[in-house]
């Protein structure tokens, strides 16, 4: 309850910032960045989103937070349009179940994109299986409406949930994100290699692209490449960082 009160105050007083973590292709060319929220308290302390996002979901504050994240990401996309190294990069935004299942979610996204004059093709929404399994018919309809605008979808934390081909093939997704738990010990764990190989084969048969998250070492990256992975995200290329630091990182070539 204490943290919930602090969270409400933080929303009122704008204590949030979006950090960005670069995503690259197999040649290490930048493709885009994932937006990750940071709560930085006035005393400089940070609260992990792993702690406050679940709380915000329970209390409903995720709706205000999620709207702020969307706004802030679109404002950033707009600003990057005038920076040479940045203008073609996509931004991936995490969307929680409660946020996605609001009746006017599509309209919110459409309206923010229009307001900032952002190409919808530069916005990717990251959903988790939890979001997708809830109310599947409505979910598919909302995704289709957004895809008609040009917005793309990634399935986050892939492999940690239910992951049946049965429902995957019905969902209008663009990308699977291999969860970092399969990447961590990839070099030494044959089971993880088999899982990653299976995920990539599954993605291929569904015509989805694949990004691996949590890539920290050259060995992991090389192995992922051998297994057929096309894109990467992780500390090897860059940690999540404040927006102004990203163009510098990209111009420096990692
Ligand atoms: O960046 P990392 O520790 O810092 O993020 C922890 C968790 O918080 C991840 O599961 C991530 O998906 C989630 N998260 C980060 N930013 C956002 C956001 O803007 N919205 C939602 N819904 N979740 C987020
Ligand atoms: O669940 P989601 O994929 O949205 O959140 C990504 C989380 O993974 C964030 O907390 C982010 O800070 C973290 N992360 C990103 N890259 C790495 C990495 O290379 N190693 C580790 N340990 N965590 C990472
Ligand atoms: Mn994510
Ligand atoms: Na994830």
From TrEMBL:
Residues 1-254 form the EAL domain. Signal peptide: none annotated. This is EAL domain-containing protein. It comes from Pseudoduganella aquatica. The lineage of its organism: Bacteria, Pseudomonadati, Pseudomonadota, Betaproteobacteria, Burkholderiales.
């Amino acid at each position: 309850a204490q943290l919930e009160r602090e969270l409400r105050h933080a929303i009122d007083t704008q204590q949030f910032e979006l950090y960005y973590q670069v995503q690259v292709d197999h040649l290490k060319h930048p493709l885009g960045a994932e937006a990750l929220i940071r709560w930085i308290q006035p005393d400089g302390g940070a609260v992990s989103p792993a702690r406050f996002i679940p709380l915000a979901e329970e209390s409903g504050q995720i709706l205000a937070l999620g709207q702020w994240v969307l706004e802030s990401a679109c404002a950033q996309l707009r600003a990057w349009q005038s920076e040479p190294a940045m203008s073609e990069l996509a931004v991936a935004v995490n969307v929680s179940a409660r946020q996605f299942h609001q009746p006017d979610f599509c309209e919110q996204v459409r309206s923010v994109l229009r307001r900032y004059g952002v190409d919808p093709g530069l916005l990717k929404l990251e959903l988790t299986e939890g979001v997708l399994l809830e109310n599947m018919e409505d979910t598919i309809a909302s995704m289709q409406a957004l895809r008609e605008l040009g917005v793309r979808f990634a399935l986050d934390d892939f492999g940690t949930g239910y992951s049946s081909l049965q429902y995957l093939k019905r969902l209008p997704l663009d990308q699977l994100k291999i969860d970092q738990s399969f990447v961590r010990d990839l070099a030494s764990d044959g089971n993880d290699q088999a899982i990653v190989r299976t995920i990539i084969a599954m993605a291929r048969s569904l015509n989805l692209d694949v990004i691996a998250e949590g890539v920290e070492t050259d060995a992991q990256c090389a192995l992922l490449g051998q297994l057929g992975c096309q894109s990467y995200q992780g500390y090897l290329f860059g940690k999540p960082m404040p927006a102004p630091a990203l163009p510098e990182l990209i111009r420096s070539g990692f």
